[in-house]
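Re-run with default settings, no changes from the original entry. Doing this only to confirm the output is reproducible before filing.
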Amino acid sequence: MNISKYKALLTAVDMGSLSGAAQKLGYTQSGLTHMMNALEDEFGFSILQRGYYGIKLTPAGERIIPRVRQLVMCEEALENEVELVKSFGDNVLRIGAFSSMAGTWLPSIVERFNREFPDITVNIQTGTVAELYGGLDEGRFDVCFGTKNSKYDFKWFSLEKDRFYAILPKDYPIEGEEFYISRFNGTKFLMPGLGFDDDISAVFSENNVRPFVTPTYVDDPAIISMVEHGLGISMLSELIITGRTDAVKVLPIVPEVSRTLALSMKQDKVLTLPLKRLVAITKDFAKNKV
């Protein structure tokens, strides 16, 4: 619907002058007169009385003008709402996250975000790499907190290097305070499966390491418990093992290997104001941890 002719009608009626309305709206007087004549032809009756005094509404015009005002107000309200959605989204922020980041980073990040955008609901869901990045690709998440993964063509915001450590039973026979990555060769390796398998497989491939891998589908504390009970050895990152190392031996891997914690979204994702602030808050948290 072309709403501009109704806006022009209201301007002319409120000013009582076609020439004044034309000047205000940037039309020629003849152009605005033609528009009003066409509107009257569309309605099938006269709307305006014209005279030396300017213009005023006919009785029929008096009857319809309140509806015209309502129509213009509704159209302007729609335009405003559309601009708000473009700028702020639909008031729901859908976040996918590795459980490690959901339990450590996200509480502080979301707390800060909520202070700035109290009317936006934040939904957080954890899952595996395939679940999270598949959901992001399908549009079920606005952003994901995980690790940078070359398999996926997303927009990545790198945040921090998360160093890997060897996770060993307390009585594991080793001297020194380091674990050379080559020592994983030929070992029974418990492969974490909830977000780590891609990262660790990449580390082994880059360093030409070939352990005997036992896939698992358990969470990180369960991996630590399995290592504690002598079921194999494993590799976890600093983010995961903080506060959970009493039952096992944890050694830094040499040479140092790590994964890159990152915030991701689809390449064509529109960066609304809330999303821009979420990225900024996340980067600030990664830098300062506050």
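The longest strand covers residues 155-168. Residues 59-88 form the longest helix (30 residues).
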